Each structure stands twice: as structure tokens, then as C-alpha cells.
Amino acid sequence: MTARWFTLATPLPSGRMRVAVTDQGVAAATFTSREAVAFPPGPPLADPSRDRRAAAVAEQFGDYFAARRRELTLPIDWRLTAGPQRAVLGALQRGVRFGQTIAYGELADLSGAFDTDEPEQRALAARTVGSIMSTNPVSLLIPCHRVIAADGIGGYGGGAVGMETKRWLLTLEGSLPPTLDWAG
After folding, report:
1. Are residues 109 and 45 in the same domain?
2. Is the pLDDT of residue 169 over 60?
3. In this predicted structure, which of 8-22, 36-50, 82-96, 165-179 has the lowest mean pLDDT?
4. Any catalytic annotation for residue 73?
5. Which residue in the list 107, 144, 169, 170 is annotated as catalytic?
6. For residue 180, is pLDDT > 70?
7. What is the pLDDT of residues 114-161, one digit of tens each?
8. How many percent of the chain have pLDDT more than 90?
9. Is 67 exposed, middle or buried (0-12, 13-18, 19+ CB in 10 A)?
């Protein structure tokens, strides 16, 4: 797989995103602060606006961040995923819409990748889903920010910036109430 990649400015606390596109779709869309995600090899795009697929990513992400778009309809190149990871990410992408959230354990059930009724195994499946979310190659298109802990918001990308990014996205989608901005 050869990808063409570019960086995209965002209003997110995590800053810019790094995006890779192929002839099949978006292969990677990661926050530049996340290193856990494998990134496909390929050359950088000198001018993303001249690449049809890159321009579509920039337009849809821009509309999403500006609250003009609720659904991202870009094709995904799934070749960086396989097995249970693909099952879980596919279930999330198909089944959890804008403004909705799902708990890690619920997503494990929805995916069908973990067939167990034993409490210990169900807890392990929920933790496995958490690990899969941390290696999601296509953030936003596969909305891992919508996956939360059964008892709270859960993690996101490690550290305080990741959590602020998750809160920002969930607030944009109406899943969390806006926080007070005492400075503004």
C-alpha cells in the first residue's frame, strides 16, 4: 500500500491531524500527538488541495469541526486492520452515530468478535476494545471518541491533551454539555 499523506489544521486541543489517503480511501487519520498508530508508507502531498481525495478529507473534516456536518462519508481503506480489530472498528463505524456514545463492553458485544457470557471474559473483552480504540488508524471516520467507560468518559490518546480532545469532540456532538469558559 502506498499512501499520500498530509497534515491538516484542526481546532482540537491536540492540534493538527496527519492523514494518509490511497486510491481506496482514507488509510489513516491520526492526531499528531498519537504515536501508537501505524502509519502507511508514502510521500507527502506538496499541495493537498490538488489531490481529489485529500481535498475531500479537508472539506468534510472542516465542515465537521465547524458543526456543519454530522456524518463523515469518506471511503475508508481498511487494509491496516484485520481480525477482531476490524470487527470492532467496523461495528463502531456502522453502529454509533453522531451524538451517541457506547461503553467499551457494549461495543465488544455489538462487534460479535468476543463470544462469551463469563464475567471475567466480558471484562477482558471490554479492555481489549479499549486497546483497539488506542490503535484506531482512522480517527473521526471511525469515531473512537464515542466509546466511553461504563462509569465515565474513559481514556483517549493518553494524557491530558487526549482527554481534552475527547471532551471537545463529545461536546461538539452534544454528548457532553459545554464547559464554562471563564476566560472568554
Report:
1. no
2. yes
3. 36-50
4. no
5. 144
6. no
7. 988 898 999 999 999 999 999 999 999 999 999 999 998 888 876 788
8. 73
9. exposed
- What pLDDT sits at residue 40? 72
Domain count, the chain: 2
Tell me whether residue 26 is in a domain. Answer: yes
Report the alpha-carbon distance of residue 72 to residue 14 in Å, rounded.
20
Q: Is the domain of 92 the same as that of 42?
A: no
Name the residue range of residue 161's domain. 81-172
Between the alpha carbon of residue 38 and those of residues 18, 92, 109, 148, the distances in Å are: 12, 20, 26, 23
Same domain assignment for residues 167 and 91? yes
Q: What is the dihedral of CA 108, 156, 136, 34, to 10 degrees?
A: -160
Q: Who contacts 80 (Cβ-Cβ below 8 Å, separation ≥6)?
A: 1, 27, 28, 38, 40, 137
| 46 and 89 in a common domain | no
User: Same domain for 168 and 85?
Assistant: yes
Give me 60's grid cell.
Answer: 468534510
Nearest 5°: the CA angle 119, 106, 168 is 130
Average pLDDT over residues 32-61: 83
Which secondary structure element, helix H or strand E, spans residue 127, and what is its range? helix 119-134
Q: Residue 103 — φ and ψ, nearest 5°?
A: -80, 155
- Tell me what pLDDT residue 156 has: 85
The answer to whether position 18 is within a domain reads yes
- Same domain membership, residue 89 and residue 145: yes
